[in-house]
């Protein structure tokens, strides 16, 4: 009874687990110009072409390019014919005009015989027979097709063959049509006729039946035959199933492709692309259907069971896995059901005896292999997260809920003494919830938690935090075949553990790899990484290259629902997130089914070529070949990169780079295949595009030139012309400027020379003045110092005398006279000093403020003579002025007047009953005045003192108190006018004063 039950279950599940297809429907809502797809063909460049009743369509796997404005009266097209391998595909519009598809674009041509789709023969129009289920079939229609050796003509009830060489005719009386569809098709060069009445297939060569075949699907009256001559493909649609029909080694090979579910009724064109394993169905009313056949097998539980959510699985046989439901599956479906009940889906493991360890709530359960997993041994209150064993002991990762009232967990790494769960040898505590662990080497174990990764030393019992300061929720720890340790995380990406350091791997384009569950490694070095949004494949060697060079680009290949998954979300969170079977298959748990696949049979689809030949320039479309010539006034350029690619667009890696612009770098091209440029400057630019074409990172490159001519004012000759004009003008301006500057410089030189001379003279004068002032200041200092010293004595004497008078109560007449006489003499001496000093100050003031003037020396002397004449007459002395009246002097009048005043004053004082004579003489610029008196005369000591003082007036000490200030003042004044005095005692009596004066205008 058990045997029959198993057989029944297998039958039921064989019905349930039919192959899952990914179907994409295209119509006027998403790219097609019209919903009737008459024919489908693929050209030599990889593009798929469609004929519709509103134009011709080119499809590259992502977008449709519609041609519906061809110069024809009608845009209603029929089937294709011609030779795709020769890049010559033809189609015909309603009114017989022919369109050639060549070099990836259609153009209207003039019909001629060998390109025509009809022949007129024997008063009959024969239309080209390119498909046996075309809308062109109608009652009374005659058809023809050509082979290498001859031509066949098809009428309602006959088939005529005409040999190409001999032109001999052969006729077969057969009913060629059934329900207005021809029952003749061609595979390679073999012609076949379906005889529905005889229930066989007749093979015809050169107009003669040579063989018969019994193929029920072909002869079934419910079967519809879709034959395309240009594609050399035959399909059979029977009861909503579609089959592919091949003829190989003189026999038919018919295989089922898909179950169509009532869609087949309106199919009018079929094409199978074996390179991408896709089926294209053209409908008369529903547009285009693209059916992708799965590379993966997804198994779901029976509809009577709860949802097909799978987590932990274990290998069961060489080709099957067992789940936490107790159900065993291989890629064909359910194999066996052990009916485990209430098992936690997140943990399963085998012990050393192949007993199955699982969890039921918080208890550990062990299903014994020797009793076919029936007997259960339990261990209470033991939440096991992960488990493995070696030859000597068990290793377990245990979960504990914290006792602080929160819902947080902690964990223990338990190492048992032997192969049992009885005696714990070592225990390591982790404050956070543990998730995965793995043996690193004999002395270390890696432990992952929801907060980080730790390395446990079994020798020192120390725990090393491998990611301090950076929280990582560890999903899985995997050791690859070459000994590398890889870490998957929740939301933080994929890491390589190297030298106790975690090295982060780059993300994919959509950052989906950031939450990866585990890694399965195949024999070719590829990692298969399930995530919450698809399955990724990458070479481990690329990841290791990235570790060496962070600029290296890692390419992740993505598989999604169109590959055969029910959902893109794979499941993690269990101790085993993926299983490797002995037969080489991988099994991954998902949110909706178990996914089986053989990694060695899964193909990666990459584009084979790239085409850059279209652009929109300022909203106008332009075609080009290798060189895009643009006008200089163009502002926006949209260059289209056409890539025939019919797989997951996430795996299409297209990058472009434009030279001649700042910061030129590779830029990703979006799914619209468009690269936009704005305001490109004139010149020759290179536009380079590259696409990834293999798993190992190989690219192919395509380069075009963009040429933008300059405006006339941007050309080299114009720039040279303008430069020449500018240089000429500059030369003229420079020459004029040089001449102007030379003239100006000459004028400035004259002004500068004049001013320099004036400044030099001024400087000289200032130097002289400075010297004079210095001498005057020094002399004044000396004079003031001497006066101060000499004034002290009489002032002190007056003070002492007054004190003496005050101290005596009564003074005699003689004492009073003596005291008063002393005070008189001292006061008179002070008075004379003061008067002389005032005169000296007045002379200095006038000398500095007034400029020199020309005056008569005689009149100056005579003024002084008149001034002293009364005093002289009182002394019975005569003053005689013998100065030449013609002498005009530039000498400072005030100074000279003061000098003569002092000299005459001395002479008048000391001359009685005598004469004072003033004579003059002139020697060049020198005036000599000689003042001679007949007075008592100066003694020799005074003459010697004044002579010596005149020669060294700056350094000699002034004896004012002894000799008075008169002649001292004269000497000082003579120094100011650069004059000298010679003292001479007369032979008889009196003194002569000889003044030697420089008579020169003071500038």
TrEMBL record:
<dbReference type="GO" id="GO:0005524">
    <property type="term" value="F:ATP binding"/>
</dbReference>
<dbReference type="InterPro" id="IPR005467">
    <property type="entry name" value="His_kinase_dom"/>
</dbReference>
<dbReference type="InterPro" id="IPR003661">
    <property type="entry name" value="HisK_dim/P_dom"/>
</dbReference>
<keyword id="KW-0547">Nucleotide-binding</keyword>
<keyword id="KW-0812">Transmembrane</keyword>
<keyword id="KW-1133">Transmembrane helix</keyword>
<dbReference type="InterPro" id="IPR013783">
    <property type="entry name" value="Ig-like_fold"/>
</dbReference>
<feature type="domain" description="Histidine kinase">
    <location>
        <begin position="786"/>
        <end position="1001"/>
    </location>
</feature>
<keyword id="KW-0597">Phosphoprotein</keyword>
<keyword id="KW-0067">ATP-binding</keyword>
<protein>
    <recommendedName>
        <fullName>histidine kinase</fullName>
        <ecNumber>2.7.13.3</ecNumber>
    </recommendedName>
</protein>
<dbReference type="Pfam" id="PF07494">
    <property type="entry name" value="Reg_prop"/>
</dbReference>
<dbReference type="InterPro" id="IPR036890">
    <property type="entry name" value="HATPase_C_sf"/>
</dbReference>
<dbReference type="InterPro" id="IPR015943">
    <property type="entry name" value="WD40/YVTN_repeat-like_dom_sf"/>
</dbReference>
<feature type="transmembrane region" description="Helical">
    <location>
        <begin position="711"/>
        <end position="734"/>
    </location>
</feature>
<keyword id="KW-0472">Membrane</keyword>
<dbReference type="InterPro" id="IPR011110">
    <property type="entry name" value="Reg_prop"/>
</dbReference>
<dbReference type="Pfam" id="PF02518">
    <property type="entry name" value="HATPase_c"/>
</dbReference>
<dbReference type="InterPro" id="IPR003594">
    <property type="entry name" value="HATPase_dom"/>
</dbReference>
């Amino acid at each position: 009874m058990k045997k029959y039950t198993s057989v029944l279950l297998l039958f039921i599940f064989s019905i349930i687990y039919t192959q899952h297809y990914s179907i994409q429907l295209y119509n006027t809502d998403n790219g097609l110009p019209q919903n009737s797809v008459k024919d489908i063909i693929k050209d030599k460049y990889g593009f798929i072409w469609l004929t519709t009743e509103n134009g011709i369509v080119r499809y590259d796997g992502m977008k449709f390019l519609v041609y519906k404005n061809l110069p024809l009266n009608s845009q209603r097209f029929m089937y294709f014919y011609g030779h795709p391998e020769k890049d010559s595909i033809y189609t015909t519009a309603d009114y017989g005009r022919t369109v050639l598809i060549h070099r990836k674009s259609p153009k209207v041509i003039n019909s001629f015989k060998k390109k025509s789709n009809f022949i007129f023969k024997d008063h009959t129009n024969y239309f080209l027979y390119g498909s046996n289920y075309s809308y062109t079939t109608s009652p009374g229609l005659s058809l023809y097709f050509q082979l290498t050796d001859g031509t066949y003509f098809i009428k309602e009830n006959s088939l005529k063959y005409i040999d190409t060489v001999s032109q001999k005719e052969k006729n077969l009386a057969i009913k060629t049509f059934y329900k207005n569809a021809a029952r003749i098709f061609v595979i390679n060069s073999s012609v076949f006729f379906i005889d529905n009445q005889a229930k066989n297939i007749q093979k015809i060569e050169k107009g003669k039946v040579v063989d018969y075949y019994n193929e029920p699907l072909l002869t079934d009256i419910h079967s519809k035959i879709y034959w395309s001559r240009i594609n050399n493909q035959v399909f059979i649609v029977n009861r909503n199933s579609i089959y592919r029909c091949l003829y190989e080694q003189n026999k038919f090979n018919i295989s089922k492709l898909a179950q169509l579910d009532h869609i087949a009724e309106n199919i009018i064109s079929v094409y199978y692309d074996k390179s991408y394993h896709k089926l294209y169905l053209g409908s008369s009313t529903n547009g285009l259907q693209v059916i992708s056949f799965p590379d993966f097998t997804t198994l779901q539980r029976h509809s009577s069971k709860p949802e097909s959510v799978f987590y932990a699985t274990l290998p069961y046989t060489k080709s099957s896995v067992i789940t936490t439901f107790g159900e065993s599956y291989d890629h064909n479906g359910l194999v066996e059901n052990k009916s485990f009940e209430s098992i936690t889906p997140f943990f399963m493991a085998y012990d050393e005896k192949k007993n199955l360890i699982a969890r039921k709530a918080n208890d550990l359960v062990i299903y014994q292999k020797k009793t076919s997993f029936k007997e259960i041994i339990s261990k209470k209150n033991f939440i096991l997260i992960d488990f493995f064993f070696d030859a000597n002991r068990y290793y377990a990762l245990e979960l504990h809920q914290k006792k602080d009232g929160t819902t947080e967990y902690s964990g223990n790494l338990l190492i048992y003494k032997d192969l049992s769960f009885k005696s714990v040898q070592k225990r390591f505590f982790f404050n956070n919830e543990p998730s995965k662990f793995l043996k690193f080497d004999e002395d270390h174990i890696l432990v992952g938690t929801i907060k980080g990764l730790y390395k446990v030393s079994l020798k020192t019992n120390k725990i090393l935090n491998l990611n301090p300061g950076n929280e990582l929720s560890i999903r899985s720890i995997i050791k690859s075949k070459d000994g590398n340790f890889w870490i998957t995380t929740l939301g933080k990406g994929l890491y390589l553990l190297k030298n106790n350091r975690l090295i982060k791997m780059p993300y994919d384009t959509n950052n989906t790899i950031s939450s990866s569950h585990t890694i399965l490694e195949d024999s070719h070095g590829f990692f298969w990484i399930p995530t919450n949004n698809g399955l990724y494949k990458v070479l481990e060697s690329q990841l290791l290259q990235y570790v060496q060079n962070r600029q290296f680009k890692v390419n992740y290949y993505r598989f999604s629902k169109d590959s055969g998954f029910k959902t893109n979300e794979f499941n993690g969170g269990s101790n085993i997130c993926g299983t490797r079977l002995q037969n080489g298959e991988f099994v991954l748990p998902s949110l909706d089914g178990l996914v089986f696949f053989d990694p060695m049979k899964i193909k990666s689809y990459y584009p084979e070529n790239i085409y850059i030949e279209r652009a929109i320039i300022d909203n106008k479309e332009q075609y080009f070949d290798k060189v895009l010539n643009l006008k200089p006034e163009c502002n926006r350029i949209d260059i289209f990169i056409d890539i025939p690619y019919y797989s997951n667009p996430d795996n299409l890696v297209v990058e472009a780079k434009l030279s001649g612009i700042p910061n030129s770098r590779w830029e990703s091209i979006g799914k619209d295949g468009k690269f936009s440029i704005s305001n490109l400057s004139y010149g020759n630019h290179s536009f380079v595009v590259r696409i990834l074409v293999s798993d190992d990172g190989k690219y192919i490159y395509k380069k075009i030139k963009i040429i933008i001519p300059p405006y006339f004012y941007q050309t080299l000759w114009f720039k040279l012309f303008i430069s020449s004009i500018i240089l000429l003008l500059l030369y003229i301006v420079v020459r004029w400027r040089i001449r102007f500057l030379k003239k100006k410089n000459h004028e400035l030189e004259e002004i500068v020379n004049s001013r320099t001379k004036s400044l030099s003279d001024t400087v000289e004068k200032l130097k002289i003045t400075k010297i004079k002032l210095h001498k005057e200041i020094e002399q004044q200092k000396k004079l003031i110092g001497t006066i101060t010293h000499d004034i002290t004595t009489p002032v002190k004497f007056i003070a002492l005398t007054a004190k003496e008078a005050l101290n005596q109560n009564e003074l005699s007449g003689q004492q009073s006279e003596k005291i008063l006489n002393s005070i008189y003499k001292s006061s008179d001496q002070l008075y004379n000093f003061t008067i002389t000093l005032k005169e000296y100050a007045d002379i200095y003031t006038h000398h500095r403020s007034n400029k020199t003037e020309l005056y008569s020396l005689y009149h100056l002397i005579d003024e002084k003579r008149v001034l002293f004449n009364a005093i002289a007459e009182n002394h019975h002395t005569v003053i005689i002025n013998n100065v030449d009246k013609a002498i005009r002097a530039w000498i400072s009048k005030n100074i000279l007047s003061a000098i003569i005043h002092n000299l005459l004053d001395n002479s008048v004082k000391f001359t009685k009953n005598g004469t004072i004579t003033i004579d003059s003489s002139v020697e060049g610029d020198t005036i000599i005045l000689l003042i001679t008196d007949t007075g008592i005369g100066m003694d020799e000591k005074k003459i010697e003192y004044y002579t010596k003082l005149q020669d060294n007036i700056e350094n000699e000490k002034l004896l004012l108190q002894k000799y008075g200030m008169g002649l001292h003042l004269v000497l000082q004044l003579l120094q100011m006018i650069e004059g000298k005095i010679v003292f001479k005692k007369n032979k008889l009596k009196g003194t002569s004063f000889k003044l030697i004066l420089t008579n020169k205008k003071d500038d």
